[in-house]
Amino acid sequence: MFGALKTFWRAIMLFVAGAKYGEAPSWFRTLPVHAQTHLYSLALIFRLWSMPHYRNGTFQDDMVKNLRNVAIPGTGLPLSIVCLTKFSALIFVLFAYPIVAFIAAVYSWHLGTSDTIEQAFCEQLLTPNDWFSLWRLNCRLASYHAALTKAPGYRQEDKFTFLETGESLGVAVSPTMKVHSIVAKDRNEEGGMGIHFYKNAFHGGQWILQERLFNDSFVASMVPESGPLSTFRVITASRGGGLKTAGAPVVSALSCVFRAGLAGADTDHSSILFDVDLKTGLIGKGTTNAHWYKLWNLRQSWISEHHMTHHPDTGVEIAGRVVPDITAVREICTEAHLKMMPDVTMAGWDVALTTEGMCLLEANLSCNFFRGTFDKDKYFGMVHDYFLMLDHESEATFALNGLKAAEPHAHSKDGTALTNSSTTMERGSNE
Questions:
Q1: Mean pLDDT in each 10-residue stretch from start to end of the chain (431 residues)?
Q2: DSSP secondary structure string, 251-263?
Q3: Number of domains comprising the chain
Q4: Same structural domain for residues 94 and 160?
Q5: Considering the domain boundaries, does residue 409 fall inside one?
Q6: Do 46 and 78 belong to one domain?
Q7: Which residues form the domain of 29?
Q8: Which of 29, 81, 147, 235 could potentially form a cystine with 51 if both were Cys, beta carbons 3.0 to 4.6 Å apart?
Q9: Measured between alpha carbons, how far is 404 from 397 in angstroms, rounded to an integer?
């Protein structure tokens, strides 16, 4: 445990002090690729801190905004508090993070998911697999890549830009209304009260106006009648942001999760997360990450298991069912990524199976696996290659035309990097 802690502190301070990822000492390069990418990304927080962010001012602004409703289970404190200053964030990473890892290790050992506390602690500290750590790693990769490459694909994070681009390229995005504006009136209010006007974004307004979509018969059979539109979250990855390799697909799908909405919820952000096999469409067991969204609650459980087979509101069995056309679900996402944003590292697509047909609601570029399973070697290898590429170039010399990238590393069975060569890569295209 002390050896793992020493490695953790040593790596964080190495990169906070300015060391480059591709020039790390041998003791760091012998770590599994998972550990290398995780530790470097934590230190990357402080390099990114004041960099412009593709959706929210600076990277710090984005952290404060997106962590304001997230709390480490059982603490109740929103994690945005940690991000108020760079010093508080550094103290948290160096000291609070290992404490949290130790508590999580005790829970894991107590539940029997780890043989020893030491094993669980080392895993949580150096190679964590919890959804939150993976989500934040994705966020840091996207932020770093967007800040250095200025890739135009990151504009698709804006929901209106996404819909406009999708329509122009023939991608099946959710349909929109083109009227100038709408007015909504309360049926009983008088005296000018209860009247609301919404100007369409297509006419310079702020609002995207759409008719409500409804679940198709397959999805509707699994969720409550009062439940929301329940979507499939598919994560795709692209090497078109500078990592193209001969013979490898530019865009591939990594994971899929069915978000079974709860009764009375407006959206499927309140849902049970059922893992879906991207090859067969088989729906696996479900879980939740709702325990991370309980603010000011000191009694919240730290861990939730993948053990749910039925919807908690209806008792309908979901695990074991098969998505009718998983190939179409997979391909609508990979093709959209290739057409709309091949220069973006990863995207999380909300796929809706509706009474009007299949469509994409939006793309999330700081994406969340939502506890879905995926090929970890492939994923961490890609993140590793992107970090090598990005750290190799300075912001001043990085341009979309003529991207330079480190050649993807070969890896041993345990994930250790075997090579350290680099090559000039052309900009990713639709090839």
A1: 95 96 95 98 97 94 93 83 95 95 85 84 94 95 95 96 96 96 93 92 95 97 96 96 78 97 94 96 91 68 78 96 96 97 97 97 95 95 95 58 41 36 31 29
A2: EEEEEEEEEEEPT
A3: 3
A4: no
A5: no
A6: yes
A7: 2-147
A8: 147
A9: 10
